[in-house]
Amino acid sequence: MSARDEELGLIRQLLEIYDQKAIASHLNSRLPNSLCRETINRWANGKADPSLTYAEFRALEELLPKPPKNHPNYEFDFIDLFAGIGGIRRGFEAIGGRCVFTSEWNAPAVRTYKANYYSDPAFHTFNDDIRKVTRSDRDDIPEEQAYRLIDDDIPDHDVLLAGFPCQPFSIAGVSKKNALGRAHGFECKTQGTLFFDVARIIKAKRPAAFLLENVKNLKSHDKGRTFKVITETLEELGYWVADVDAEGTDDPKIIDGQHFVPQHRERIVLVGFRKDLGVHEGFSLRDIEKTFPATKPRLSDILDEKVEEKYILTPKLWEYLFNYSLKHKAKGNGFGYGLVKGGDITRTLSARYYKDGSEILVDRGFNPKKEFHHPSNIKNRPRRLTPRECARLMGYDGIGESYFRIPVSDTQAYKQFGNSVVVPVFAAVARLMKSRIIAAKARAAQTSRIAA
Q1: Is the N or the C terminus of the chain less surrounded, counting Cβ atoms within 10 Å?
Q2: Residue of 99, 166, 188, 390 with catalytic role
Q3: CA end-to-end span of the chain, whole Å?
Q4: How many angstroms separate the most distant Cα atoms in the chain?
C-alpha cells in the first residue's frame, strides 16, 4: 500500500467516527498549527491528496481504538447483535473473546462503537440492518437458501450476544404459513420480529453458547406470551437456558445494576448452552451474587466538581418539572423528577434523558423549606448528568476516568447510554460463563472432527 493510500485510508476510517472539526482539533492539540478542518474536508471529498508528516499520522492514529492486551491470542470468538455502543461486548472481550461480527443499525451508535472497539479487518465484519444477513424481509428467498446465506455471511463463532428489542409475536404469520403448507415451529411463531433474526442465526451457526438481554418486562410482555415463545424457540433449537423456570422477585435472570453502580436498572439476562455439548450442568445466574463488589461507587464518586452551565436546568424548565411533580403528588401518583444527592441510588437512566433529565437530577442545594423562587433556590437549581457522568453511571468508565470516547452530540450520547446496559453486570456474567464457553468450544471442535 502506498503512503497516499495509507493516509487516505486513515482519514476515511476516522471520518466514520469523527467530524472534520474533531479530527483537526485533536491534531492541533498534539501538534499546534497543524491541519485545519477545511484541509481535511478537501481530502475527504477527493479535492486534494492527503499529505501527512510522520508525526501527524501517528497523532491521528491515537484516535483509533487499540487492540486488547491479549491480541492476537484470543480464547474464543463471539458476535455482537443489536450491539448499541458495545456494553455487552466489553465483558466478553475482557475474558479473552474476539468479536468477529457486529450488527447495529443506528449510525450514531456505530460511530461510538467504532471509536471504542478495535476491529481486526482480517476477522471482523460490520453490518447495519440484521435483516440483510438473515433475509427475513425477503419472501422470495426460500428458508433453506436463507440459512446457507446466513452461514456464508456470518463468521463461525462460539458465543452469540444480542440485546434484541421487545416485540409481541403475532399468530398472523402462523395462519398464513398453515394455509400455504409451510414450516411450523419458531419460523412461524417468531416471524416478523427481530428475535426471529436472532433465532435464525442461532439455527444456522449453532454457537456453543448465547447471552440475550432485554428489559425486565419481557417476562410479563403480552401477558407472558412473548417470553414463552422465546424460551420455547430456544428449546426447539437445542439449547438449555439457565434458571428458565425461576419466577417471582427471587428470579436470578433479573439482575439489578445497583449491585455494581449507583443506579437502579433491572434487566433480564438469558444465558444458554447447547445441550449436546453437556457443559450446562450446575450453571445458575444466582452465582452472580458472588461477584458483587464489596464496595461500589457512590454517586458522588462519579460526579464532576465543575460542569458547564448548559447542564444546569433553566429556571423555566425547573419550575415546570417542580409544579408537574406537585400536581401528580396531589393526585396520589408518583410521577415527577428524581432529585438525587451524592449517597443516593438513581432511577433508571432512559433514552429520553436528553429531553429534560427529569429522572436523574443532581441536587445543587435546592431547599424545599424555602419558597421556590427564593434567590438561593433559583441559584442552586438542579442539573442533569453530563454524558461523561452517564458513562460512569453505566460502568463504561470508572471513578475519575474519562477513557470511553464519546464522538457524538450530547443528545445522541444520552440516547446511547440510556439504551445501553450496565457494563459491570455483563462483565460479571461473562466471567461466570467463561469456563463453560471454553469447555463447550473444545467439545464442539471434537464433535466436528468426529463427524468429519
Answers
A1: C
A2: 166
A3: 40
A4: 80
Q: Is residue 36 annotated as part of the catalytic site, yes or no? A: no
> How many CB atoms within 10 Å of residue 323?
12
Q: How far apart are CA 144 and CA 151, in angstroms?
A: 11
- What the block records as the C-alpha cell of 125 is 465484519
Task: Quickly list H helices, 267-314.
Answer: 299-302
- Residue closest to 344 by CA, chosen among 391, 377, 385: 385
Sign of CA dihedral 310, 361, 335, 247: positive
Q: What is the pLDDT of residue 192?
A: 55
pLDDT for position 375 = 96
Question: How does DSSP classify residue 310?
Answer: G
Closest C-alpha among 58, 66, 63 to residue 18: 63
Same-domain pairing of 406 and 274: no
Indicate if 142 and 277 belong to the same structural domain: yes
| 156 closest CA partner among 221, 215, 206 | 206
Pick from 190, 259, 225, 233: nearest CA to 427: 259
DSSP strand E in 55-184: where?
76-81, 97-103, 125-127, 159-162
Question: What is the Cα–Cα distance from 215 to 265, expressed in whole angstroms?
Answer: 9
Cβ atoms 360, 278 nearer than 8 A: no
Check whether residue 136 and residue 232 sit in a common domain: yes
What local confidence, expressed as pLDDT, does residue 328 receive?
75
The pLDDT, as a whole number, for residue 170 is 45
Ranges of the chain whose pLDDT falls below 70: 1, 166-192, 330, 332-335, 452
Q: Which of helix, strand or coil describes residue 402?
A: coil
Task: Tell me the chain's radius of gyration from C-alpha atoms.
Answer: 24
Examine residue 29 and state whether it is found in any structural domain, yes or no: yes
Q: Residue type at 355?
A: K
Residue 365: domain span:
299-418
Cα separation, 425 vs 94, in Å, equals 13
Q: How far is C-alpha 37 from the geometric centre of its chain's CA atoms?
A: 31
For residue 68, being part of any structural domain is answered with no
Q: What is the pLDDT of residues 306-325, one digit of tens each?
A: 999 999 999 999 999 999 88
| CATH code for the domain in which residue 402 is found | 3.90.120.30
Q: Specify the DSSP class assigned to residue 47.
A: S
Residues in the chain, overall count: 452
User: Which sign, positive or negative, has the C-alpha torsion 125, 131, 135, 140?
Assistant: negative
Torsion of CA 106, 66, 34, 402, to 10 degrees: 70
CATH number at residue 275: 3.40.50.150
Alpha-carbon distance of 27 to 62, in angstroms, equals 10
What is the reported pTM? 0.92
Number of C-alpha atoms within 13 angstroms, CB side, residue 300?
Answer: 5
